[in-house]
Amino acid sequence: MNIDSLDPNVFAPASRAAWLKLVDRALKGADFQEALVSRTDDGIAIEPLYARRSDTTPLARRHIDRPWIVSQRMDDPDIERAFTQLDEDIANGASGVNLISKASPSAFGVGIDADIEAFAARLAASVSGNAVSLRLDGLSPAFAAALASAFATSQHLPTMHFGLDVFASKGMAQEMTESFRRLRDTGFAGTLVNADGRAVHNAGGTEAQELAVMAAALVGHLKLLDQASIAPEATLNAASLCLSADQNQFVTMAKARAARMIFARIAEVCGISHPPTAHLYMETSYRMLTRLDPETNILRNTIAVFSAGTGGADEISVLPHSLTHGIPDPLARRLARNTQTVLIAESHLDHVVDPAAGAGGIEALTETLAEKAWEIFVGIERNGGLAEIIASGRLAAMVAEAKTNRAAKPIVGTTLFAAKAERSVVILGELGPVAECMGLAPVRLDEVAA
Fold it and tell me: What totals of helices (H) and strands (E) does the chain contain, helices first?
């Protein structure tokens, strides 16, 4: 058959009106909205069909000339074992290391608790000569200073995300300002402060609430550092946006893209005509992990990484699938790492900048989510800022209401297609207590469902 000889008009022109007629026939009297329109936890409607968008600009990662950073957690309380894991991670595909303090709200029962000077010196020696990015999560400004000092004689400084966050720790505003000044002049590429919304997500909040708290944290840091005569552009250039990625593919993609829109809007309000590109760090969701049938968490993590990567994350960290049971073993850590490396090395997800650009459904969801988050953010600022609503308990109440209002959904392996008998899970040790952040305690959806 000669394809060139086919009549281009063999198919009738497509139109929304013709499609709606076919839909009406298929629904057989059922209501269109109830049958085909779903809603996010923020009440945002997701229609079944959208027109292509041609008026959009791709929302790019900060560094589009290389893949996102495959960040592996260094969080084992056993320091010797943690350094063994570090060597394995770097040798087998990790391009970033996320150091998790025992006190971090992202520790989830694990985390490092070691002598500052000795640990910093050993870490610097271990990663010397490797092109890795280091991220500090919940570690003190004193540790950040010690680590910077440990690298002082190194010929090749790593990319460093120091993770200063005045909202994750109480009473450290002055210390953070002083640390920002000192660390800014050390010569490290990377970021200094975190604008983090993950605690809201893991406590049961909505996507818009998570984005709003991220925005409020960023503005809180801008205000604090502005008082110390640090220009807004310098703060934005040194800021890392931190969000959770879960198994809801399109919503996670839209959330990542909305974060960039909100960052650009804040820069615009600050009077910055050419704002820097935000550094976006995403961690797979703790609240989506199940204790029953934990292997299903591998699938959830895969969708979460796909969504974060195609949504434009600069750096992604995967919580091992067995974390709900205890300290993950080497296999669980390897699966967490390889979830990312397969999607980069074999699926080439990093080759296209913002593949969702122009997709009508994701563009609409991105914009609506950004608008909803901005509305909540404005309300936070109107009521005194993030520190005030944390102290007053209003943030916790807002998130608790969202958790209560969330419609119950099936959880595979827990409430849907549950295993007749649970398999044993290999772990290296028991979990410790889980830390709160901003007055919020993390909760897993399988605990609520049970």
Answer: 16, 10
Q: Please, are residues 28 and 194 in contact by the beta-carbon 8 Å criterion?
A: no
Angle at CA of residue 114, ends 110 and 119, nearest 5°: 120
What is the structure's pLDDT at 109?
93
> The pTM is what?
0.94
Handedness of CA 137, 138, 140, 146 (dihedral sign): negative
Read off the amino acid at residue 373.
Answer: A
Helix (H, G, I), strand (E, B) or coil at 44: coil
C-alpha pair distances (Å), 174 with each of 141, 192, 194, 447: 11, 15, 16, 39
Residue 416: CB atoms within 10 Å: 10
- The pLDDT score that the predictor gives to residue 8 is 65
Q: Which residue has the tokens 């996010």?
A: 40
CA dist., res. 280 & res. 316, Å (int) = 9
Burial 362-391 (b: 16+ CB within 10 A, else e): bbbbbbbbbebbbebbeebbeeebbbebbe
At residue 60, what is the residue type? A
Tell me the DSSP string of 409-446.
---BTTTBS--SSPPP--BSS---PPPPBTTB----HH
CA atoms within 13 A on the CB side of 115: 4
Degrees to nearest 5, angle at CA 191 with 186 and 192:
70
Residue 276 burial (CB count, 10 A): 16
Predicted local confidence at residue 6, as pLDDT: 64
**List of the chain residues with pLDDT < 70:** 1-9, 170-171, 449-450
**pLDDT tens digit sequence for 187-242:** 888 999 999 999 999 999 999 999 999 999 999 999 999 999 999 999 999 999 99
Tokens 């909202």, residue? 167
Q: Which residue has the tokens 């590109």?
A: 277
What whole-number distance in Å separates Cα of residue 426 and Cα of residue 438?
A: 33
Give residue 415's pLDDT.
Answer: 80
pLDDT in tens, 94-147: 999 999 999 898 999 999 988 888 899 999 888 887 889 999 998 888 889 999
| 428 contacts 76 by C-beta, under 8 angstroms | yes
CA-to-CA distance for 241 and 196, rounded, in angstroms?
6
How big is the chain by its Cα radius of gyration, in Å? 23
pLDDT score, position 13: 74
The enclosing H or E element of 149 equals: helix 141-150
